[in-house]
Design goal:
single chain; alpha/beta; Rossmann fold; 7-stranded mixed β-sheet; two-stranded antiparallel sheet; 9 strands; 53% helix
Length: 274
């Protein structure tokens, strides 16, 4: 069996590529993960189809390294995010422990980092009104962390979810949350219902609804419809900014409404109205 030629110059090239991958490569979203997979496949395919041994060797090695590196990176980052969430939950535990358990944070609900940030903001800025688009488990956690003087509103488009939220609040002994069932009209909550039931001034606005899994911009009207109700210096927290559509929306809002970024994490962005 003939040995595979491994020219020194090509080996050095591959070593430099691998060093760059190990030092700098970070996968930030599902989209970039797909790009990594495509690039890995292309390099491996090039290596298999090429008749030139040096090119076949370099492309095959680089493609395999890129694929393995991205898998390991994804796993490490996933473990780090779990550990971060656990740490934040431990920090919240003394405030949210009550006579009844709360449902898990994260997933569809706000994550523990977002809940902790809102609680800290309200305490420092003495906020008086909070509106949450997409209430649920996070509302219960916030209720137990926030001062009793704060008034809370929740907006839900789906009747079944609104009823479930009402039952959850009753079971959990939550303060009186004004729960607004506002069906979607052209992708946004019924404006007439919002205008008649929301407070004239909003100190904290949490944008976690309506659903936007397909990235169709369903949450973009939030500031257009509610900006005139925001009090000076109000907090706007945008959840799910790990998704491209929410990140783009938040960037456009910051530019259009002159918002100041006050906190940034993978899963959420927090702005202050100026």
């Amino acid at each position: 069996m003939r040995s595979v030629d491994r020219p020194t110059c090509h080996t050095r090239v591959v070593d430099r590529v691998l060093n760059q991958i190990s030092s700098h490569w970070r996968v930030r979203s599902r989209t970039s993960s797909a790009v990594v997979a495509a690039a890995s496949g292309a390099l491996i395919g090039l290596g298999l189809s090429s008749s030139a041994k040096p090119l076949r060797f370099v492309a095959g090695w680089a493609g395999s390294a890129l694929a393995i590196g991205s898998i390991l990176d994804y796993g490490v980052r996933g473990q780090k995010e779990v550990l971060d969430d656990n740490r934040k939950l431990w920090a919240l535990a003394p405030g949210i422990v009550g006579s009844t358990p709360i449902r898990p944070l994260g997933g569809w609900a706000l994550g523990p980092g977002a809940v902790a940030f809102v609680a800290q903001w309200v305490a420092v800025h003495q906020s008086r009104t909070l509106v949450e688009l997409g209430p649920g488990a996070s509302t219960v956690a916030l209720d137990r962390l926030l001062p009793a003087t704060l008034q809370m509103w929740g907006v839900e488009h789906d009747a079944a979810f609104a009823n479930a939220a009402a039952e959850l609040f009753a079971y959990s002994g939550t303060r009186e949350v004004t729960l607004i069932h506002a069906p979607l009209i052209d992708g946004w909550y019924d404006t007439k219902l919002l205008n008649s039931q929301l407070p004239p001034q909003i100190d904290v606005l949490i944008v976690d609804g309506p659903p936007n899994l397909m990235g169709n911009g369903n949450r973009r009207p939030a500031l257009l419809r509610l900006h005139n109700r925001l009090s000076p210096g109000a907090l706007i927290l945008v959840d799910d900014t790990a998704r491209r559509d929410e990140r783009k929306m938040a960037t456009e809002w910051a530019r259009e409404y002159k918002l100041r970024v006050v906190h940034r994490e993978t899963e959420f962005l927090a702005f202050q109205a100026m």
